[in-house]
Amino acid sequence: MRLFVLLASLSVVLLAGTCNTDTKASSPQLKQLEGTWLHAQEEDQGDVRVYRPNTYAFPPSRGRTGFQFDHNGLFTQYDIAPTDGLEGHKGQWKATSNTMIRISLDDKKEPDYSLEIVSLENGVLKVRRVE
Prior knowledge:
Layout (H helix, E strand, L loop, with lengths): L1 H14 L19 E5 L8 E6 L12 E4 L4 E7 L5 E10 L4 E6 L7 E9 L2 E7 L1
Antiparallel strand pairs: 1-2, 1-3, 2-8, 3-4, 4-5, 5-6, 6-7, 7-8
Protein backbone atom coordinates (compact mmCIF):
# COMPACT_ATOMS: atom_id res chain seq x y z
CA MET A 1 0.00 0.00 0.00
CA ARG A 2 2.82 2.42 0.89
CA LEU A 3 4.46 1.81 -2.49
CA PHE A 4 1.18 2.56 -4.27
CA VAL A 5 0.83 5.86 -2.39
CA LEU A 6 4.44 6.75 -3.20
CA LEU A 7 4.01 5.95 -6.90
CA ALA A 8 0.79 7.96 -7.05
CA SER A 9 2.42 10.99 -5.42
CA LEU A 10 5.41 10.63 -7.76
CA SER A 11 3.10 10.78 -10.79
CA VAL A 12 1.42 13.95 -9.54
CA VAL A 13 4.74 15.68 -8.88
CA LEU A 14 6.16 14.66 -12.26
CA LEU A 15 3.10 16.07 -14.01
CA ALA A 16 3.74 19.34 -12.17
CA GLY A 17 7.20 19.49 -13.79
CA THR A 18 9.47 18.26 -11.01
CA CYS A 19 11.02 14.91 -10.19
CA ASN A 20 9.99 12.91 -7.15
CA THR A 21 12.41 10.14 -6.21
CA ASP A 22 10.68 8.45 -3.27
CA THR A 23 10.47 5.10 -5.05
CA LYS A 24 12.82 2.31 -5.94
CA ALA A 25 15.28 2.81 -8.80
CA SER A 26 13.21 0.49 -10.99
CA SER A 27 10.20 2.85 -11.03
CA PRO A 28 9.07 3.74 -14.57
CA GLN A 29 8.98 7.46 -13.63
CA LEU A 30 12.71 7.41 -12.87
CA LYS A 31 13.42 6.42 -16.47
CA GLN A 32 13.79 10.18 -17.09
CA LEU A 33 16.85 10.20 -14.83
CA GLU A 34 18.52 7.24 -16.52
CA GLY A 35 21.34 8.03 -18.91
CA THR A 36 24.49 10.10 -19.11
CA TRP A 37 24.30 13.74 -18.02
CA LEU A 38 27.02 16.33 -18.62
CA HIS A 39 27.47 19.56 -16.70
CA ALA A 40 26.29 22.65 -18.59
CA GLN A 41 28.20 25.00 -16.29
CA GLU A 42 27.31 28.05 -18.38
CA GLU A 43 23.67 27.53 -17.29
CA ASP A 44 24.31 27.15 -13.53
CA GLN A 45 22.32 29.40 -11.23
CA GLY A 46 23.96 29.96 -7.85
CA ASP A 47 24.34 26.58 -6.13
CA VAL A 48 22.04 24.84 -8.63
CA ARG A 49 24.02 22.87 -11.21
CA VAL A 50 22.52 22.25 -14.64
CA TYR A 51 23.05 19.01 -16.57
CA ARG A 52 21.98 18.00 -20.06
CA PRO A 53 22.06 14.62 -21.84
CA ASN A 54 25.43 13.77 -23.39
CA THR A 55 23.75 13.99 -26.81
CA TYR A 56 23.07 17.73 -26.37
CA ALA A 57 24.98 20.13 -28.68
CA PHE A 58 27.09 21.81 -26.02
CA PRO A 59 29.11 24.93 -26.79
CA PRO A 60 32.90 24.44 -26.77
CA SER A 61 34.39 23.83 -23.33
CA ARG A 62 37.73 22.78 -21.85
CA GLY A 63 35.99 19.73 -20.44
CA ARG A 64 32.73 18.66 -18.88
CA THR A 65 32.13 16.59 -15.79
CA GLY A 66 28.99 14.54 -15.42
CA PHE A 67 27.44 11.28 -14.34
CA GLN A 68 25.45 8.30 -15.51
CA PHE A 69 22.42 6.82 -13.77
CA ASP A 70 21.62 3.21 -14.65
CA HIS A 71 18.20 1.67 -13.99
CA ASN A 72 19.62 -0.90 -11.57
CA GLY A 73 21.06 1.65 -9.14
CA LEU A 74 24.53 1.66 -10.68
CA PHE A 75 26.15 5.08 -10.99
CA THR A 76 29.25 6.46 -12.71
CA GLN A 77 30.68 9.86 -11.87
CA TYR A 78 32.75 11.41 -14.66
CA ASP A 79 35.58 13.72 -13.62
CA ILE A 80 38.24 15.42 -15.72
CA ALA A 81 41.20 13.03 -16.02
CA PRO A 82 44.83 14.18 -15.79
CA THR A 83 45.04 13.77 -19.58
CA ASP A 84 41.99 16.07 -20.09
CA GLY A 85 39.66 13.19 -20.93
CA LEU A 86 36.97 11.82 -18.66
CA GLU A 87 37.70 9.44 -15.79
CA GLY A 88 34.80 7.31 -14.54
CA HIS A 89 34.27 6.42 -10.89
CA LYS A 90 31.77 3.61 -10.34
CA GLY A 91 29.28 3.58 -7.50
CA GLN A 92 25.60 3.32 -6.61
CA TRP A 93 22.65 5.69 -6.41
CA LYS A 94 19.51 5.38 -4.34
CA ALA A 95 16.43 7.57 -3.92
CA THR A 96 16.20 8.51 -0.22
CA SER A 97 13.26 10.95 -0.26
CA ASN A 98 10.95 12.81 -2.60
CA THR A 99 13.77 14.91 -4.03
CA MET A 100 17.04 13.40 -2.76
CA ILE A 101 19.36 10.84 -4.29
CA ARG A 102 22.25 9.39 -2.29
CA ILE A 103 25.50 8.72 -4.17
CA SER A 104 28.14 6.31 -2.92
CA LEU A 105 31.34 5.81 -4.93
CA ASP A 106 33.08 2.43 -4.78
CA ASP A 107 36.63 3.84 -4.66
CA LYS A 108 35.77 6.09 -1.66
CA LYS A 109 38.07 8.82 -3.04
CA GLU A 110 35.41 11.24 -1.87
CA PRO A 111 32.73 10.88 0.82
CA ASP A 112 29.17 9.88 0.00
CA TYR A 113 26.97 12.79 -0.99
CA SER A 114 23.40 13.57 -1.97
CA LEU A 115 21.90 15.32 -4.97
CA GLU A 116 18.73 17.29 -4.42
CA ILE A 117 16.72 17.24 -7.62
CA VAL A 118 15.46 20.78 -8.15
CA SER A 119 13.83 19.92 -11.48
CA LEU A 120 13.93 17.45 -14.33
CA GLU A 121 12.06 18.52 -17.43
CA ASN A 122 12.57 18.97 -21.16
CA GLY A 123 16.00 17.32 -21.11
CA VAL A 124 17.34 19.59 -18.38
CA LEU A 125 18.35 18.23 -14.98
CA LYS A 126 18.89 20.78 -12.20
CA VAL A 127 20.46 19.58 -8.97
CA ARG A 128 21.94 20.93 -5.78
CA ARG A 129 24.78 18.93 -4.21
CA VAL A 130 24.45 18.24 -0.49
CA GLU A 131 27.38 16.83 1.48
